[in-house]
Amino acid sequence: MTSPTTRRTVLTAALAAAAGAGTAARRRPPPP
């Protein structure tokens, strides 16, 4: 993480992963 661009990319990727995980958990139907 030397350049700010790389840092921003990693941060965006982490944010997207967290958002995707949250959406998947919300969309998953509750267990019977």
What's the gist of this structure?
The chain is mostly helical and 32 residues long. The protein is built from one helix and no strands.
What does this structure look like?
This protein is an all-alpha fold. The chain is about 75% helix and about 0% strand. The protein has one helix at about 5-25. The protein is rod-shaped. The relative contact order is 0.12. The model has no long low-confidence stretch (mean pLDDT about 80).
Report the count of strand segments: 0
The general outline is rod-shaped
Q: What fraction, in percent, of the residue positions are helical? A: over 70%
Name the beta content range.
Answer: under 5%
- Average of the residue pLDDT scores: 81
What distance lies between the first and last C-alpha atoms, to the nearest angstrom? Answer: 45 Å
Write the layout of secondary structure elements.
Layout: H1 4-27
Keywords:
32 residues, mainly alpha, 0% strand
